[in-house]
Amino acid sequence: MRRGGDVLTATAARRICRLALAEAARLSGASASVTLTSAHGGNTRFAVGEVTQVVDSEEVTLEVAISFGQRRAAASTNQLGAAGVADVVARAARLARLSPPSPDVLPPLGPQRYLASLGAVDAEAARLGAAGRAAAIKQALALAEAAGVVLAGFYQHARLSTSLATSAGLWVHDERTRLACSCSARTRDGDGSGWAGAASHRAAELQPAALASTAIAKAQASARPARLAPGRYSVVLEPAATAALVRFLTESIDARSAHEGSSWLSQRAGGAGGAGSAGGFGGRLGQRVLPESITVASDPADYAADGRAFDAEGVPQAPTTWIDRGVLARMATDRSWAAKSGQPLTGWPEGMRLEGGTATRDQLIRGIDRGLLITRFFYLGLLDPTSLQVTGLTRDGVFLIERGALVGPVQNFRFNHSPVELLARCDGLGATQVVAIDGGRRLRAPLLRSHDFHMTSVSEAV
Hints:
The protein is α+β, with helices and mostly antiparallel strands.
């Protein structure tokens, strides 16, 4: 079926999917959708001058969804022999017969045309193993030792395959590589903390030593922070901070929630934007929702940001601009909502990005009379979907800016702020970077300057 260390090939995956569909065809009145994933990869954790954990793994999951009309259920297994496949189909069928009917259940998707996934697999990343990870981490730890700083981090990689098949004739197979590395540095007295991270699908774009160097410098610079009162500040956000907040916005460009009145994109009765009324299909579609400098787009060929030619339902993906120079140009629809609303079907995109600009960090800092440079945010939570108010903490380096220059470190804060407010007050954008955010999702986000950012209280955490 496959060699040790390999993911399922298209040929092997198709054979397993056909076996599952053949079992489903024995069920009177049933339709079926099959998702088959496999992964080979590993990770290495390191801390206090040494490697602390090494994991190499191979995983495979077969998920079968069975529908009887509008009754639908799914079951999964990692047993890919004939008996295992027959069992998972039977379990899904039993559950489907017990499930209540749902108007969101549609017939399976039929054959589709997809963009070719050229370059999604990086040969160097596919070959990477524990020895390669250890060699890279050794360099990072040596830098920390020389600087007298404690370093910890996580380096992970995988080669992945995903296959979709349905009883209506859909078939698609995708393979890719995926990597991420993060380094956290702490001064030995525990007073200063720094962080740096990167994500890609190409091994050459991840350099643990370079990340360690950045994290070490941040830790040293953030030691002995001054006390600063909470309040509203101009801010320069590094890409990790931008991505952590803006991901709430990119995940909210959703036609259903806008129509149902539970989104910042819902249309009030009478035409004003905001929640409070179902309003009509699309909510604020075609309206200006952000400044002209703001564009949000997705690209299935941006493999570093998890771009892919199809979504989880098999809906084809194409390069799409969602917010075009501040105007809401498209809203995401799954198959169910597109059928119900009559809106164009988009599927759920990945490879999302907030477009950047050409400004350097120093240029953005020079445009601030008094404000903060923020490395990243931590422990974020959504408070209100109708305004996208988010709460969270700063972490790993906050620095005071006065009269266009960095003055020195200050303590961490808790904040309450919305990415809508952040982008509405944005007046400077720099280069973008792919950031791995909570839940494993990825977003390409820029260095960003904004104003009136609400720091609600002081955080005593380093």
